[in-house]
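User: Design a sequence. Structure:
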């Protein structure tokens, strides 16, 4: 199992530069410690300043790192023109020396779709066509494409990506239909940290069944899994330091109607018990606890890359650095 970091940039201290600068130091440490990737997530129209431009952010990360693979985790693909995504991804792959992975998802917040004048009901159809267009632009000298939503005639992409045949495309998905689409058009399904574990098992079965239908292999498949993670010297210390910063993020998800109970039913905004329910889906504790949880995801789900959000608003920079160090020294040797 590989170890990677993912960042959602809620601006802290009233200073977006300081928030980002601290993350760069954390990524540089992670690179020295043998972590695999750094991913940047995206949202729009969020009052706390959540960074809305992952391609720009990744460009800055690319010039400060040498080994970490780089990915948006994820961009809300239906809000974009696929030609722009293909261009930005190709340039990032070139300037990073072939370290780019494209992470995409359908999105779910009506406010974002309304602002970009994209119908929410059209997101699945746009996803399929956009991934097809992007992959064609990355692998063909010129592209002709005729779809219901996108049409191109004799379009070329320059420069081409450094990776051949193309950078990998990870597709984030939660619902059965979205997971099946990930199997159809993507190189990997990127599983989220919100879906209950029993539902996640069913979605994994749905994914493998869809891979078979599309004549794709089901063994040796890359399976990146995102979790909320914090490692400290003891379980008690880890929860004491990370609980409130983690739950700050999940209050947003609850307000957006993006949480599910253990049976996969929607959790209504305002549910007072919802946030504590999530503890079993987090990986928080001593190195021994973190190793045990990772092995569970390896054995029960076949996870190949643990995508970890370790930085949360209100969690001190020095504590994040300590969590990265502990993970590299006392967890990674037991799960690689």
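Assistant: Done.
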């Amino acid at each position: 199992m590989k170890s990677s970091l993912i960042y959602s940039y809620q601006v802290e201290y009233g200073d977006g530069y300081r928030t980002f600068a601290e993350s760069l130091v954390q990524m540089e440490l992670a690179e020295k410690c043998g972590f695999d990737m750094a991913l940047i997530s995206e949202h729009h129209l969020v009052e706390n300043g959540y960074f809305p431009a992952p391609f720009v952010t990744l460009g800055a990360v690319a010039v400060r790192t040498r080994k970490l693979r780089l990915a948006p985790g994820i961009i809300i693909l239906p809000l974009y023109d696929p030609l722009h995504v293909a261009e930005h991804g190709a340039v990032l792959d070139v300037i990073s020396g072939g370290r780019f992975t494209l992470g995409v998802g359908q999105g779910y917040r009506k406010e974002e779709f309304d602002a970009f004048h994209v119908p929410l009901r059209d997101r699945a159809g746009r996803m399929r066509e956009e991934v097809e267009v992007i992959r064609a632009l990355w692998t063909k000298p010129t592209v002709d494409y005729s779809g219901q939503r996108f049409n191109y005639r004799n379009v070329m992409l320059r420069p081409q990506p450094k990776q051949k045949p193309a950078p990998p495309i990870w597709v984030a998905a939660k619902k059965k239909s979205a997971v099946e689409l990930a199997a159809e058009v993507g190189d990997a399904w990127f599983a989220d940290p919100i879906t209950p574990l029993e539902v996640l098992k069913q979605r994994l079965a749905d994914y493998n069944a869809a891979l078979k239908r599309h004549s794709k292999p089901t063994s040796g498949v890359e399976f990146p899994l995102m979790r909320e993670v914090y490692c400290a010297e003891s379980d008690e210390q880890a929860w004491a330091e990370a609980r409130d910063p983690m739950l700050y993020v999940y209050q947003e998800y609850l307000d957006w109607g993006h949480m599910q109970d253990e049976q996969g039913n929607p959790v209504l905004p305002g549910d007072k018990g919802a946030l504590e329910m999530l503890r079993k889906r987090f990986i928080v504790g001593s190195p021994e606890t973190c190793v045990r949880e990772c092995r569970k995801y390896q054995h029960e789900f076949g996870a190949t890359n643990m995508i970890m959000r370790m930085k949360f608003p209100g969690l001190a920079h020095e504590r994040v650095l300590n969590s990265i160090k502990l993970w590299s020294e006392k967890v990674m040797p037991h799960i690689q």
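The mean pLDDT is 94. DSSP finds eleven helices and twelve strands in the chain.
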